[in-house]
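Query structure, 59 tokens:
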């Protein structure tokens, strides 16, 4: 590890901190993705309703 320029002391703590940061970021991205999927589904339903209304008005 010394050849790689990494100190054996504290590297585990640094690694754990990086893992924690990655897990936090992943949770944030997962939440955003869930919200985006819900918004996409709502947009699709709204679009379908509008197409249906348009067809009714054309009759």
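Result returned for the query:
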């Amino acid at each position: 590890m010394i050849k790689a320029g990494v100190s054996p002391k504290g590297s585990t703590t640094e690694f754990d901190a990086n893992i924690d940061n990655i897990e936090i970021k992943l949770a944030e991205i997962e939440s955003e993705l869930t919200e985006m999927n819900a918004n996409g589904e709502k947009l699709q339903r709204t679009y379908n309703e509008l197409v249906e209304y348009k067809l009714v008005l054309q009759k």
